[in-house]
Structures are given as structure tokens and as C-alpha cells.
Amino acid sequence: MSNYPLYYLLPSLLLVALLGTLGEKPKVNKYPQNAITSHDWPGHDWPGHDWPEYNGGPDRNHFSPLTQIDTTNVAQLKVAWEYASGGADTVRNTTQMQCNPIIIEGVLYGVSAGSQAFALEAATGRELWKTSITDQTFSMTSRGLTHWTDGKESRIFFAYGSFLYALDSRTGKPIPGFGTNGKIDLKEGLNRAGADDYVISNTPGTIFKDLIIMGTRVNESAAALPGDIRAYNVRTGRLAWTFRTVPRPGEYGYDTWPKDGYKNVGAANNWMGMAIDRKRGIVYAPTGSAAFDFYGGNRHGSNLFANCLLALDATTGKRLWHYQTVHHDIWDRDIPAPPNLFTVNQNGRKIDAVSVLSKQGFLFVFDRVSGKPLFPIEERAFPASDIPGEQTWPTQPIPLKPTPFTRQGFTEKDLSPLLTAEDRAGVLTELKQSRSGQPFLPLGRERTVFFPGTDGGPQWGGAAVDENGILYVPAKENPVYTAIRDAPKTQTGTTSLTGKKLYETNCGACHGTTREGSHDGTYPSLLNVSARQTAPAVHQLLSKGRGMMPAFTHLKEAERKAIVDFLFGKESSVTADPRPARTTLPYSHTGYNRWYDSKGYPVSQPPWGTLTAINMNTGDHLWQVPLGEYPELTAQGVPPTGTDNYGGAVVTKGGLLFIAASRDAMIRAIDRKSGKTLWQAPLPAAGYASPSTYFVNGKQYVVIACGGGKLKTKSGDRYVAFALP
What we know:
It contains eight helices and 45 strands. It is mainly β.
């Protein structure tokens, strides 16, 4: 846990003494959290009035022991303050905010829609400082910040693009002694011949003593850099240790790849964040799939440490144990969120546990020290691939308990009753021509249906766990389809490459080969782009990236210009890059195609978004309810269907779950015992983020970042805080 040192509190205590005889009440936190440092937080044994780390604490459980707001008074919640953070693109709706703000001793730290860090008075929303960083590499959407203190200094760590900044928590100014002028470049040390140079960090780092442990987000193409996990000294920025997720000769796991696999394959990266047991000195780091996501003909083997939960010695980076949740992943089934650390009671014995989610809707639960599964996991056989060169792993691990919290395959019986007759006939025809009905069906030339979709199931928002070991997880259940296709041919030397060919190679998988984009707006249409954007603006977007869009730094400027010319209806071509070719593969895929009907609703039977409570002591489900609604359907008498959702919940000892996440731009308070909604309020834009809760000046607040921008919802820049009157 992070907190301000005691000397920060002394001026306030002196002020109390000086003003006491005058009868004036100083504006200080009633319950200062000055007894605990970031080095020794023993779980939930803390005053709990702050929200000092990403997802609430080192266990990432989204839990708060606050009780002022409870089931009896939550209906009285009102807006306490709003803060316009700036940077929202409300014309094209391309910006987002996914930040889970941290709150320390009455100060809230967050990230704006324009990717700038800021500090506010947590009781009023008044801005204290805000950065104005304009480095060349543009940041992806940030999910938050990291705080560190040793009792004398107090620092905020903030990632912007590939740079990690150390900021003075009182002023927001970079600290000169950290790295170079207050920042380090996370690209340094991530080298692989044939790789591009796309590296960012959009999930906060994890503190252990004087180290900040960082994962990164890299490309998902064959040219991805490796996903090394690294620790840096918080004072100097010097590299302290590295754990290589694609092992080298002599390292454990090297034989799970082809010879010299580390030279040819990247990713297996920690983009989703970590949890840490500071008492034991163990950091728990999940990883994603090896790149390319949907074909592994160049990486035969199980591919450690891709798709793994890693338990590492936080001091040295040494592997203590691991578990692989998907072998030789060709489905992009990353572990999507940080682990949860909690204690369960099994057969009268208390066991410290760690769990991770699966995009497939699975929960894997282990003894935190030994790595032994706490519930049975079965290796089951699945079909082999028929794509030349591919060698799928013959089995995959399936937890027998807890049972999945999403459906596991899309069949005719799963069609939505809301489909029109015409839509139903069309979906049935397409379904009969598809691979569908179970998990882990290898992609082929015909469409393969993922259910839940390629991004889950559960999302990066992760699960909340209360003090009794009850886990609450939001998820979505929308079918997505894709197929393997031949990659556009690329050549080097003097061959001329057209803008169209460059577009197909670099952009087609997401925006579609015909530039139509995705139906839900996740990947916008690029048809008639000249009516919405200028050519220089698109060129800058390709150069710097924005939101979900990576920077195309692997392309030369002339190649980016040729793509822009193609999008704006001009004929142009360039001589192919004579430099050594980037890593390429013979296959690509046809994009992330979310399956919607003609009215824009998922073709699957509702619920389309859910919130599930699971007793982690027994593995039994307690309840599941739809999360979100389409108001126009509810007005027609259709029961709430749930919606796509992004972001997690806060669970409090006051008996409540607070969650936004849904596309209907509402925030809800839910009775954690029953799943019943007790209160809801509209937001200025959808809250695709996890809320935070905190206590300052005698009041409990709940705050949410309202960034919108996904699923064709409007973008926003507001942080909104609620409290009792």
C-alpha cells in the first residue's frame, strides 16, 4: 500500500492545535492513514480510508472496508463534484478513459482523456496540478498510476507512451534523478531482430520496497517485441532484474519452443497488470499469448511462458512456480486481468489463494505459495488444426470448479429470440457454414465463432473479492467470428508497393479489407474518411497512435503516406523497404467481427452482459444477474438484457457493489448478497473504468472516470464523484 509520510501530517496537526482555541475546524482527513507504509501492508488490516493502489490494493481485490454508504442509505447518493480532465474528442468519439484513480490522504490522482496525469482535492474535485507532456510517442489509454513513498519522499509513477515518468506527488514535476530528466524508456532492452519498436505501458506498475515492477503492451503481429517483465529502482530508474517470458538457451521453458525461438517470436507479455504478496515477497504476473495471436506454425510447442500465471520472487525476478492456462495459444486467450489474492477456507483449513480469470469464462485458483490448484483441473483433448504448418497442442486445461461463468459455445439453441425472421434465417445459414459450438476450435479458412468473444468474457477490469472470499466478476457474452486467410505478399528490394497493399497488410485485419470497420465501432469505418479527417491528421495518427490504435513506427514515412493517399482516394506507391524484412507469417486473419443483427444487437440469446457472484471457498455460484440494459428494449417490455461492458466493480463492507462498465452510461449500486440493483444514476459518458471509493473529511465518496468512446458511445472527459447529502 502507498501512503503519505507522517511529516506530511504534522502541519495539519499543528494547525489543529493552533486553531483549537478559536473553535475553527481544520480541513484534514478525519482518519489519516499514517501508520502503514508501502512496504508492510498485510492485506486488509489497514484503516481503509484511502484507495492507494490500482484496484484498491496489492491484492487487486477492488475491496474497501468503508461502511458509511450501505444498503439502507445508498438510494440517497448525489453528485458531490465533477472534474473536466480535458482531452476528449467529442467530434469523432475516439478518446477513452479507463483509469482507476488512486486516493491518498485526501488527494486523488488520475489520468485525463488526453493522457495527462493530474491531482485533485478528493473532497472537492479542485485541480492541484496537471502534466503537459508532449513526447513524440503517444500514449495508449491509461488505466492508472502508481504511488511510492519511503516516509520522506513521495512519487507518482506515470506511463506515457513508452516512457515511465517519476513525478513529485505534490507538484507533478518530473524528478530529475530518475532516469534521464525524470523518465526512462521502456523500449530499452527489448530487442529482437525483425521486430518493430511498438512498446507502451497502460496498466500501472507494482511496487515492492524500492522497486517498481513493470509489464508492457507490445504489438500482436508477428513483428512483436518480447514481453519481458522488468523491475526498476524507484529512485534512480536503473534496471534491477528481468524475467524473460520467451526463454533463452539454458533457461527453464526453452525447450517448449523451436530452437532459438526467442529470436523469432515476441509478446507473451504482461499487459494486464500484477498482484503482489508483500509479506512473502512474491509478485504474481499473468501473461498474454505469443504473437501472432491466431497462427503458431513458427512456434511449435506449448510456448512457456505465454498464457501463464507466474509467481516470481519480487526481489530477484526468479521464477518460483507457474501455471499455463492455454497451451500454444492460437485463440488470443490472454489472461485478461490482474490476479486476485485472498484467503479461502477449505475443509476447516485457511489457505492463502491466488486466482486468475480466462477470457473463456474460467477461473483458475491456486495455493499462493505452492502453486497447487485448489480445485481440480482436467486436461481435455480438442481438435487439431488443418492449416498447413500449424501444430495445435492436443489438450487444454479445463477447471472443473468453479464452473464457467459464461456459456461455452454458440449453437442454434443460443440464437436470440429478438431476431427478426430474416435475421434468424441469415444467421442460421452462416452458422451452418462456421466452426462453432465449443471452445478451442482451431481457426480455418471458414469462419470460426468465439463464444464468448475474442475479448471475453471477463475484461481487463477484473474481479472484486470481499472479506468473506466471495468473488464478483463482470463479463460479456457476444459471439465474434474470424477466419484464417493468406497474408498479403510483401517483398523487399526494388519491388513497388501500393498504398492499397500496405493498407491490407497493416490495417485490414482490424478495419476490414474493404475499410468497412467493425459493426460496433470498436474499429471505425475508414470509408469516406476525408469527410471526417484531414490527411495530415491521419498521417499523425499512423505515426503516434491513439486510443486502441498503435503507432505504426515500423513503417517508413513514405509507406505511411502511401496508406493515407489510398484512404483519401489517391494512387501512390513506394519502393519496398530495403532493410532486413520484419518477421512475417504466411497467414493473417479476417478481423474481429462481432456478430450483430440488422438492428445492432448481438445475435446470441441474452444476457449479453452479466455480473456473477462466486463463493471461492466452495467454488459454487451464488447468483448471476444481467449487467446493463438497452433502454429502448426495456421500454418495449423486454427484461434487461445486459450489454457489452468494460471495467470492474468496487465491493464494500457496507454490503454494496458499485459498478458502471455498461454501454448504457449508468453507474449502479448492487446488493452484494442478492445481486439486486438498489440505486443507479446516469453518467455524462459511459464509465468504461473501475470506480474507486474513499473517505475524507467525514464523508465516503465513490468516483468513476466517464470516458466513453467505445461501442459507438460518445467520448467524455469527466470524473464524477458521488456521496451522501
